[in-house]
Write a structure and sequence with these properties.
Blueprint (H helix, E strand, L loop, with lengths): L1 E8 L3 H8 L5 H4 L3 E8 L9 E8 L2 E13 L3 E8 L2 E12 L2 E12 L2 H35 L1
Helix pairs in contact: 1-3
Length: 149
C-alpha cells in the first residue's frame, strides 16, 4: 500500500523542519499521537533516532517502534518500522514551488509474511482510506503549529 499526501505551509523550511524533527514533543504537535518514548538519540545526526510511538488507529491503541534511516536537514527524513509481518516506510519531505513551501508525507506498507499478505488483500482498501485520513490530519496539525509560530 503506497500513498502520499501534500499540503502547503506558510513558513520557512527551517521552521517546518524544526517542528517535524521535534519527535520528543510530537504529542504536543500532532493530535493523533498519544505517547512518545525515545529509545536512542544520536548526538550528531537525526539518522539513528529511535522511538516508540503510541496512537489510536482503527479504534485500537497501536504502538510502533520507529527509527530514522535517512535524513537531509531542512529537506526530508525517512523512517522505518516493522510489525505484524510488514515493513512500514514513511517519509516527510519539505519542497518549494513558486515561493510556496509544501510538506508531504509518503507511506509505503509492504507485507512480508503470508498472513500479512492475506490481510492486506482483504482489508487493504479500507486501511488505505483510514491511513490517508490520519496522514492528512498529522500534516494539518503540523501546519497549524508552524503557522502559529
Amino acid at each position: 500500500m503506497k500513498m502520499e499526501v501534500r499540503i502547503p505551509i506558510n513558513g520557512s523550511k527551517e521552521d517546518i523542519w524544526k517542528v517535524i524533527t521535534d519527535i520528543e514533543n510530537a504529542t504536543s504537535n500532532i493530535s493523533g499521537i498519544e505517547k512518545v518514548e525515545i529509545l536512542d538519540h544520536p548526538k550528531d545526526s537525526l539518522v539513528g533516532l529511535k522511538w516508540i510511538e503510541t496512537r489510536t488507529m482503527f479504534g485500537k491503541t497501536a504502538t510502533e517502534t520507529m527509527w530514522v534511516t535517512e535524513a537531509e536537514d531542512n529537506h526530508y527524513y525517512q523512517t522505518r518500522a516493522e510489525n505484524h509481518g510488514a515493513i512500514y516506510i514513511s517519509r516527510l519531505e519539505i519542497s518549494e514551488e513558486n515561493g510556496q513551501n509544501f510538506l508531504s508525507m509518503s507511506f509505503d506498507g509492504q507485507a512480508q509474511s503470508f498472513g500479512a499478505r492475506i490481510m492486506s488483500a482483504i482489508f487493504g482498501f479500507l486501511m488505505k482510506g483510514a491511513t490517508k485520513k490520519m496522514i492528512q490530519q498529522d500534516l494539518e496539525d503540523i501546519k497549524k503549529v508552524v503557522e502559529s509560530g
